[in-house]
Write a structure and sequence with these properties.
The complex is a heterotrimer. Chain B is an alpha/beta fold. Chain B is built from twelve helices and eight strands. In chain B, helix 1 crosses helix 12 and helix 2 crosses helix 3. Chain B is globular, with a radius of gyration of 19 Å. The radius of gyration of chain C is 14 Å and the shape is globular. The chains are: A alpha+beta, B alpha/beta, C mainly alpha. Chains A and B meet through helix 4 of A and helix 2 of B.
């Protein structure tokens, strides 16, 4: 007996004002491609990490504007979509080596931070659910470490900057905060500094030279017989 | 006793000495100032237009956070922040329609009902003058001009004392062993944010205020506002350029005097 | 909408209550920097003279409320000055360029300047 083909559930979406019927359960990105659109901008990793596919949408009967990533959001019946492949946000030019990481550093390069009215629209727009208003407030009062910490997972999709009434470029401010934090404020890794010094002093030069002279077979032999657990080997040697 | 404390952006940057000296001074009289866990820039100047509700969001949000953290009083040292939060609080108590709109907009926060009391530290200190007198180890022996500026006294609904002849700061100075001079320009505006775009106006105002204080025998001038402090202190160099015979005067926050007087000799 | 109606709506004040006593201008700390005195601003607004919107006066006003507190008819002149500023700011005409102002100002000055001088 022939099996009855299961019917695919379709939903109605509107891409830039035009209606399409697409299978339910697809992401916005896949649904747009199903409808025949080809992404030449505004698509990247397709995994929620690069921030290229910023989308603003409205649901039927709902007055609110929602913002999310096209590759991560499932389509719903009655969705009205528009893509934002680029946000023309202001980015200051700076030389990291010349900036003093004091409590005016961020507000000097981005004085529009002083226009923040704490409306929280940025936080509501963030697809990563970051505390955007909190890190902007921390930047305004010069708390670079807090701004760097709270903005860590920012994927720079630009949705916050697009919706901000004060025209702040949140993700650029956060990037400067993270750069200043990494360069001046975060504690330095001592063992890394020591290792870099050893390399610069030529401690590993001889071994590198020897290795570069070896043939493929010798290298393969060395690789296969390498110490995978060097600490255990050392302990075994000491025990002898 | 623990009370909620709202620093404002400048007490965390240019006016750190105000915050530190205030916390120390209050500790000495048994009050712990607990900074709010979450607070937001109040916006400095209160928005006066009848329909400009967005500019009042920040102030209301701070009051909501105060209530959320379980406090019914909020101490605000910075004069500008005090004025903005107090006026916003009055709006919350009196203007139902505005609050309905604001509460609906801030749908991620609980509704605010106007139940927090916004206070300035000087109001608390005015009720603790006897304790303050007892804590004084080194009485201040100088003459001080108590400069109120505008926002601690105006509009009338938010004034911490009588707006033409205030005495609240003078009584504190006397409790600390100092002598407060009476100088008529004590509540005359220093020029405020004109320092951003119209510095000369501020320089002129500062010249008049300090000269008036000195004419009334003041040795130093004290204030509660980081903007007045910035204008009065930093613009004195500019005043000197225009008036070579101008004699500069030190500027302090009132809490710095308290710290000085409470310190063991 | 006439200038007077716009200012009355934004400020919530009845400009006709002013009887030109001049106490506001006398008490205004910034009066000598202004091109039009506060009481003159009220008179010109009632007459519908658009020069008040182009004047320097609303931008020199420091919002110190001295005028509001001294007015014998309880007219809040501070609110009237705010209304005149907003007429320009709401058309997206800022009074200063934030990127051009002096660096290293305390946050209090920067935020106040941004609030008053930019829309």
């Amino acid at each position: 007996m022939a099996k009855k083909k299961p019917e695919m559930k379709m939903v109605r979406i509107y891409i830039m004002g035009k209606e399409y019927k697409v299978p339910a359960g697809l992401t916005i990105m896949k649904a747009m491609e199903y409808a025949g659109y080809r992404y030449i901008r505004g698509a990247g990793c397709r995994a929620g990490f690069c921030g290229a596919c910023a989308t603003v949408y409205r649901k039927e009967g709902d007055y609110k504007l929602y913002a999310d990533l096209a590759c991560q959001t499932t389509v719903e019946d009655g969705m009205w979509l528009v893509q934002l492949p680029f946000t023309p946000a202001n980015k200051a030019t700076y030389d990291l080596n010349k900036i003093k990481p004091d409590d005016k550093a961020l507000v000097n390069f981005y004085p529009e931070l002083a226009r923040c009215v704490s409306c929280n629209t940025c936080t509501k727009a963030c697809p990563q659910e970051l505390d955007v208003m909190d890190y902007i407030q921390a930047s305004l009062r010069g708390d670079i470490a807090k701004a760097a910490e709270l903005s860590f997972d920012c994927i720079q999709c630009g949705l916050c900057a697009m919706r901000c009434p004060a025209e702040i470029a949140h993700y650029h401010v956060a990037q400067l905060a993270r750069r200043l934090y990494g360069k001046y404020i975060a504690p330095k890794a001592k063992h890394l500094e020591e290792r870099v010094k050893e390399i610069e002093e030529g401690k590993y030069d001889e071994e590198m030279r020897k290795m570069m002279k070896k043939s493929i077979e010798e290298l393969r032999e060395m690789y296969n017989s390498r110490d995978i657990e060097p600490e255990e080997e050392e302990e075994a040697k000491e025990a002898d | 006793m623990e009370v909620a404390y709202y620093p404002g952006c400048t007490l965390k940057t240019n006016a750190k000495v105000f915050e530190e000296s205030l916390i120390n001074a209050f500790n000495k009289i048994g009050i712990k100032l607990k900074e709010l866990n979450k607070w937001y820039c109040c916006g400095t100047v209160y928005s006066l237009a009848t329909d400009n509700l967005m500019y009042r969001l920040a102030a209301i949000r701070n009051l909501i956070k105060t209530k959320e953290e379980g406090f019914s009083k909020l101490i605000v040292p910075c004069s500008i922040c005090y004025n903005t939060l107090k006026q916003a609080n009055l709006m919350a108590k009196e203007d139902e329609e505005a609050m309905a709109k604001i509460n609906a907009f801030m749908d991620e926060e609980p509704d605010y009902d106007g139940s927090v009391e916004v206070l300035h530290p000087l109001q608390i200190l005015a009720m603790k003058l006897d304790e303050i007198k007892r804590m004084v180890k080194k009485p201040l022996n100088k003459n001080y001009a108590c400069y109120y500026g505008c926002l601690l006294l105006r509009p009338k609904e938010v004034a911490i004392d009588e707006y033409e002849m205030p005495t609240i700061m003078e009584k504190l100075v006397e409790a600390l062993g100092g002598s407060a001079v009476n100088f008529p320009l004590k509540n005359e505006c220093c020029g405020s944010y004109n320092v951003v775009s119209n510095k000369e106006a501020v320089v002129d105002r500062v010249y008049r205020i300090i000269t008036n204080a000195r004419k009334n025998n003041a040795d130093a001038i004290i204030t509660s506002c980081p903007l007045c402090h910035f204008n009065l202190k930093e613009m004195q160099k500019e005043v000197k350029k225009l008036h070579p015979d101008f004699v500069e005067m030190p500027v302090y926050y009132f809490s710095e005097l308290m710290e000085k007087a409470f310190k063991e000799g | 909408m006439s200038l007077l109606s716009k200012v009355e709506e934004l400020s919530g004040q009845n400009l006709y209550a002013c009887y030109q006593c001049g106490r506001c201008s006398a008490g205004c700390p910034m009066a000598d920097e202004m091109d039009l005195l506060p009481n003159q601003v009220i008179l010109l607004t009632i007459r519908g003279d658009e020069s008040v919107v182009e004047a320097k006066t609303p931008w020199i006003c420091a919002q110190c409320y001295q005028c509001a507190v001294r007015c014998p008819k309880n007219v809040d002149i501070a609110k009237i000055m705010e209304a005149l500023r907003l007429i320009k700011l709401r058309k997206n005409i800022d009074y200063i360029k934030l990127e051009k102002i002096k660096k290293n100002l305390p946050q209090i000055a920067l935020v106040a300047g941004a609030r008053k001088y930019t829309g």
